[in-house]
């Protein structure tokens, strides 16, 4: 596709992500409740976050371990969502482990989806790709926000 001398690769991860993400946002907008309570805003924010991760993982496909891990987690979440109605709202506890308790590799394994099952070489390769994709995700989302805030 050419526009003003610029060639766009319609198969790029960036374009696939943007199309999928915008499509999801438009669906969310159609189904948006009329109220703007704090709870509704929190739910909408969570849905946008899930849509962003899902769109990026779908754009990358199953070639990467991190995208397979995200897609697996989202499928399981959707499958169990109907079965598990809110039991009780528990606050998430974040541990602040002392620096000597975990190696840097183990900390990285926790950050990269699917990283727990990877050897060091694969972990570093997946981490680099995941960071590039997150960077692309931020740029696309910023472009969308800029476009719609005019």
TrEMBL record:
<dbReference type="Pfam" id="PF26576">
    <property type="entry name" value="IBH1_N"/>
</dbReference>
<dbReference type="InterPro" id="IPR044660">
    <property type="entry name" value="IBH1-like"/>
</dbReference>
<dbReference type="GO" id="GO:0005634">
    <property type="term" value="C:nucleus"/>
</dbReference>
<dbReference type="InterPro" id="IPR036638">
    <property type="entry name" value="HLH_DNA-bd_sf"/>
</dbReference>
<dbReference type="InterPro" id="IPR059002">
    <property type="entry name" value="IBH1_N"/>
</dbReference>
<protein>
    <recommendedName>
        <fullName>IBH1-like N-terminal domain-containing protein</fullName>
    </recommendedName>
</protein>
<dbReference type="GO" id="GO:0046983">
    <property type="term" value="F:protein dimerization activity"/>
</dbReference>
<keyword id="KW-0804">Transcription</keyword>
<keyword id="KW-0539">Nucleus</keyword>
<keyword id="KW-0805">Transcription regulation</keyword>
<dbReference type="GO" id="GO:0006355">
    <property type="term" value="P:regulation of DNA-templated transcription"/>
</dbReference>
<feature type="domain" description="IBH1-like N-terminal">
    <location>
        <begin position="12"/>
        <end position="77"/>
    </location>
</feature>
<feature type="compositionally biased region" description="Basic residues">
    <location>
        <begin position="81"/>
        <end position="93"/>
    </location>
</feature>
<feature type="region of interest" description="Disordered">
    <location>
        <begin position="81"/>
        <end position="106"/>
    </location>
</feature>
């Amino acid at each position: 596709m050419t526009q003003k001398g610029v060639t766009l690769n319609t198969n790029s991860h960036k374009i696939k992500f943007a199309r999928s993400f915008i499509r999801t946002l438009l669906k969310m907008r159609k189904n948006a409740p009329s109220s703007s309570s704090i709870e509704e805003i929190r739910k909408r924010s969570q849905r946008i976050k899930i849509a962003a991760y899902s769109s990026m993982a779908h754009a990358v496909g199953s070639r990467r371990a991190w995208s397979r891990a995200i897609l697996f987690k989202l499928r399981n979440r959707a499958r169990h969502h109907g079965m598990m109605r809110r039991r009780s709202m528990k606050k998430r506890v974040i541990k602040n482990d002392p620096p000597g308790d975990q190696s840097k590799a183990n900390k990285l394994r926790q950050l990269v989806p699917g990283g727990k099952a990877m050897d060091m070489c694969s972990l570093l390769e997946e981490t680099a790709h995941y960071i590039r994709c997150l960077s692309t995700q931020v740029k696309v989302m910023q472009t969308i926000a800029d476009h719609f805030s005019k």
